[in-house]
Amino acid sequence: MMGVIIMKKVFIGFLVGIISATALSVYADDGLEKIEAYLRPSLPITLDGKKVTLENPPVMYDGSTYLRLRDIAALTGLEVNWNDTTQTVELGKKGDSQMETTLNPSEESQKRALRLYDLRKESEKLTEQISSLYKLIEPYEVLMGSPKLKEKDDFYDKTKKERDVLIKRREEIQEEVNIILKESQAEADQEMERLRSELNKGN
Length: 203
What we know:
Elements: E1 5-6, H1 7-27, E2 38-39, E3 45-47, E4 50-52, E5 59-61, E6 64-66, H2 69-76, E7 78-83, E8 88-93, E9 100-103, H3 107-137, H4 154-202
């Protein structure tokens, strides 16, 4: 059914977010990064084929859906704790002190998160530079039927070449970002299976 997100996929997205957010908050020298996200309270969520109601609405950011970990825990019978000493999110089954699952971002996931952060910063800088170069070559080109104001010369050729190089680099960054996101999703998928396995052992 369109518009319905199965819990596994949502949980995977959240795990990716936890891994990335933890790494960035600990290692990013620039501190917190301001982002633009959207609440989507009307988005249906199902668990084992049954529609569920969450205390907090899903958050849409950068093409992914995120849920609060405590909402997930409430649905799956887990307890959530933050270990400030080890900087980890700890998931434990309610009423069972012997069963505890620790969600600790791997070294590889931390590296990916840092790389993703650097790539996005570089992409933002490239976008600003490309925009500035566009303004320089705009008088040499016909835009929306209006006549060009200058004849193309060496300056135009040099500036256009520089702009094209930056555009290509930005495209390369986007390709690398897509690869990193796929790798993070695959790791989150494995983590989800591990959590399920440990939960089944505890039953």
